[in-house]
Amino acid sequence: MLQSIDLKTKLRLSFALIVMLMLLLKLDINSYLKLALFALAYVAVAYETVIAAFKTLFKRFRMSEQFLMSVATFGAIALGDYAEALAVLIFYEIGELFEEYASGRSHKEITSLIALKPQIVRVIDKDGNELKVKPRKVKVGQTIRVLAGEAVALDGTLKNDSAAVDMSALTGESEPFLYKKGEEIPSGGINMGSVIELTVTKDNSNSSITRLIELIEDAAANKSKPEALISRFAVYYTPLVVTCAIILALVPLFVAGESFSDWIERALVFLVVSCPCALVLSVPLSFFGGLGAISKIGVMVKGSIHIETLSKLTVLALDKTGTITQGKFKPADFIVDDGSSKSELLSCVYALESATTHPIGTAIVNYCKINGVELKKAEAIHEVSGYGIEGIIDGKKVAVGSREFIEKITSRTDLDQSKVIGTEVLAAVDGRFIGGIVLNDEPKAGALEFFGSLKSLGITSCMITGDKESVAANIAKRLGIEKYYAKMLPEDKLKAVKDLKTKSTAVVGFVGDGINDAPVLAASDVGIAMGQFGSASAVEASDVVVMNDDLRKIPQAISLARRTYKLAMQNIVFVIACKLLILVLGAMGIAGIWVAIFGDVGLCVLAVLNAMRALTWVKVKRGGTIS
């Protein structure tokens, strides 16, 4: 019966009982009746706390904050201070109510950002019939239908001419995205127009909305260092406090003329004010609120430990292609060697690059398709990571890739590299150099603003790219990048980040999007992945995910992380300072039990309210607008 009463109802009943008890104590009634009334009130208020305290003590062999509260009430009862014994527990329960409310609101702030994941998907079969099935049963390649106002359940390419989709749950952008035929729409968006149909490209377990939900769940599981410190602190802190309280209570044994009742009351004050719940509640809530605030701008942080690291970032390194630049290359020039032709060059490059998903290869393949280049069959295709691709075409051994790769095969070094501003893809047939394609890639919108924001935050920017020196220098100069590394292979990128981390004070982050960036993302202090078009391995290896690939979100996330960490530290310093002051006053006999209650519950409420300020930093208005 008692366990079915919720916390609010129990608090109302407790207040009624304590008021009744205090009134009856003023009357001249039988002492046994007073004791019976107190016992009834005490059981109603304290049964859960006392049971939890002794369960933790005997099952886990440690003293919790509930144990502190229970011992404090036992001491008050021994002194005959029944009202004070009840007051200690009632105000402790008030603190619990604040925790329940604040935690619930923090969780709601995060989960409300996600459009409800549909439990049913409309699948169109071969005969054109609409079948309603669960998302996990839909296979890649099937066609699904999304009605107006419905959420997109699975990632897929658009079959209609166009579609307007509200992506605020994933990206934080209030303006609907306009997708064209053939473009991929991530799951989690809301169809803002008429009925649309999609060809599924990712199954349920790999869909964008599933990945986002997993990120949120993982975030709650990962603790920051201060948060973990507070949890460990509570385990060792409670026995120390109980020991100190016992020593205080036994002072009359060693000091003549002192009263046991006086020193037991001081010990009770010590126990009550020492309860660490203000820290245990407010620090995690500060970080959880920060997670919610950052998620509202379309950036997902995989746990509060990464908020702390993000707040201390001093160097941010970035991959170039697809991260700083659009990753949408366009052939700008062609190099054709004597004895070769442009058509031979394109057909060789087309055949091998069709086997890769790299942005450069994709750009060449698209160019060849548009210009009607014949696609020849390539066999025995082998990719040399970081260098290029080899294969057999019409019985000839063909190699396509970087200058270094082709130079090793052909021994040609006579092409003046300094005159080429762009990314080269060179080709050789049977060890003979036949030419190359020069491609250009433009910076993303907002890239210049992004690097300016990093500088204003005091963070050093660094670009690490596999591209050649001239291309890297050109991009760095245009965008104001302070440092860059060119001609980096995947293992070189890893070494470069480790070199940046050698400075004892350096906290190094890395931003990337490709499969080859995954090791670097994992090795950096904080790895940031581009989540919209980034590879699954990059997202998996990262600590932070930018859902819409907008670089400008990163400085915003860093600023919010700094505010979150500062907020947590404010709570730690404020609570400890106040508690130490009351502890000293209590030990001196100046502060009584009511001051101790304020030092416990009052500080807890103030610290929790301060922590909840993080939930108001970024406001999502109706329609998804962020302010």
Write the layout of secondary structure elements.
Elements: H1 7-26, H2 31-59, H3 65-78, H4 82-111, E1 121-124, E2 130-133, E3 143-146, E4 156-158, E5 162-166, H5 168-171, E6 177-180, E7 184-185, E8 190-191, E9 196-200, H6 208-221, H7 225-249, H8 260-274, H9 277-295, E10 299-301, H10 304-311, E11 315-318, H11 320-324, E12 330-336, H12 342-353, H13 359-370, E13 378-384, E14 388-393, E15 396-401, H14 403-410, E16 423-429, E17 432-440, H15 447-456, E18 460-464, H16 469-479, E19 483-485, H17 490-500, E20 508-512, H18 518-523, E21 526-530, H19 536-541, E22 544-546, H20 553-587, H21 593-611
Question: What would a concise description of this structure say?
Answer:
This protein is α+β, with helices and mostly antiparallel strands and 627 residues long. 50% of the residues lie in helices and 16% in strands. It is built from 21 helices and 22 strands.
Low-pLDDT parts are 1-5, 620-627
> How far is the N terminus from the C terminus?
47 Å
Helix content: 40-55%
| Mean pLDDT over all positions | 78
Derived from helix and strand composition plus strand pairing, the structural class reads alpha+beta
Approximately what portion of the residues adopt beta-strand conformation?
15-25%
**What shape does the CA trace take?**
elongated
Number of separate strands: 22
Strand adjacency order, main sheet: 10-22-21-20-11-18-19
Task: Give the number of helices.
Answer: 21
Gyration radius over CA:
33 Å
Describe the biggest sheet?
Answer: 7 strands, mixed
